[in-house]
Specification:
It is a single chain. This protein is 21% helix and 21% strand. With 241 residues, the chain is α+β, with helices and mostly antiparallel strands.
Length: 241
Amino acid sequence: MEGPFMRIEDSGLVMPLRPDVTTVGRGRGVDIRLDDPSVSRLHAEIVRRGPYVYVVDMGLSRNGTRVNGRPIARRVLEDGDVVSFGTARCRMGGIPREEVDPDVELRRAVAPELTRREVDVLTSLCRPALSDEAFVAPATAREIAADLVVTEAAVKQHLLRLYQKFRIPEGANRRTRLANEVIAMGLVRPLPPVHVPQQNRTPVDARTAEVRRPGHAPGHPPGRIGTPGRPPAGAAGRRAS
């Protein structure tokens, strides 16, 4: 078989990798389906970029992804590597040999320039993935629109531009791939919980996300998104007095 492929050890089935992104999981919509209860419906992606092949754990499975027995988030693959999705073992083949450290993550050296609103959209997109909840997925366009108090059509236009800026190819799970890329590049990260005095507590979650904008000037606080449209605690009382 020409080109990179994956051999499922239990069945011996050999599956060629797609030219760009191959999805792996237990769900019906994935490219390579593994009928194993330890595998998530969308478990991982195998990405081809030039001569390189790397695997990305989607972060949606309790059992994770391992390469040669080591748990990974994203890792360059070599010919003969054994990739375990949960307890399902697969062996990689047909990968050209390159002088590359397999522990090095393939990340773009420079993040694209982002507008203030694009930063807002990325923050809202990634917020669920930065929470403490398990089996989370990135926010939908409708949820982002509600969070930012804008129209869903406007959010979709921003997402289209962001797919182009981050070179996310067309296909299923583009939002998930965008969120993974943004988090892997370190553009979005969780903030520690904010301790609010008891008398000023509001029912909103104190955890927010911080976005580091490319070229951000030192000493200037990065942008944060809280709950839009909500006045500070006690503001209504001050207006009434």
